[in-house]
Design goal:
The protein is α+β, with helices and mostly antiparallel strands. It has one domain (3-173): Aminopeptidase (3-Layer(aba) Sandwich). Helix content is 29%, strand content 35%. It has 5 helices and 8 strands; from the N terminus they run ββαααβββαβαββ. It has helices at 19-26, 29-32, 45-57, 104-119, 134-142; strands spanning 3-4, 9-12, 61-68, 71-80, 88-95, 124-130, 146-157, 160-170. Strands 1-2-3-4-5-6-8-7 form an 8-stranded mixed sheet, with helices on both faces. The model has no long low-confidence stretch (mean pLDDT 96). The protein binds coenzyme A. The site of coenzyme A (COA) has 20 residues, from β5, α4 and α5. The site of coenzyme A has 20 residues, from β5, α4 and α5. InterPro entries: Acyl_CoA_acyltransferase, GNAT_dom. This is GNAT family N-acetyltransferase. Residues 14-172 form the N-acetyltransferase domain. Pfam families: Acetyltransf_3.
Amino acid sequence: MNLVNVKKVTLRKLEFSDCSRMMDLVNNKNITKNLLDRFPIPFTFKHAHRFIENAKTTKLATVFGIEYKGEYVGNIELMHGQDVYRKGATLGYFIGEEYWNRGIASAAVKMMIDYSFKYLDFIKINALVFDKNIASQKVLEKSGFKVEGILRKAVYKNDEYLNEIHYAIFLDNYS
Ligand SMILES: CC(C)(COP(=O)(O)OP(=O)(O)OC[C@H]1O[C@@H](n2cnc3c(N)ncnc32)[C@H](O)[C@@H]1OP(=O)(O)O)[C@@H](O)C(=O)NCCC(=O)NCCS
């Protein structure tokens, strides 16, 4: 299923034909500095292939490629909570730098939340953001997420300790 919105943003399944573009988009320190270390530099074709293979087969996450005006520009994923966390899920995303500040992530996040609350059995979506990542905080706040708390020095990234802001949005006050 493809989800399309008025901003010409589409969420669709990732395909192996996205590997080399994904490699190009992620191979950028301005992207990886705000992501988990499973997105290293260099981010090789092999890393992209493994990511897409996992996205196609896993039952533990819902993963989409993001298209803008028909072009693949990034990914958005929802990691499904397990065990006692199974009614919640955690959001992650990136947009290639050349496409920043056009509202693409904000549109993709809204579409992913709509999809999750409509088709998946979650009552809460979490998003964990490094405190220096103002753009992502803006995206979440524009999409209705609220801060639940700040975990100090929760992250060790690029030889530095970072605080992490925990955001969430709930099904019962989402319209
Ligand atoms: C975070 C990210 C996904 C945003 O993508 P995007 O498509 O540019 O996002 P949008 O255009 O929807 O919104 C970005 C907002 O942040 C604002 N912004 C961007 N950089 C900013 C900065 N340094 N300071 C303040 N605001 C900033 C933009 O002005 C925009 O707000 P506005 O719509 O009110 O003007 C993108 O920067 C990215 O991929 N970063 C690296 C990976 C990452 O951080 N992923 C999220 C991990 S939690």
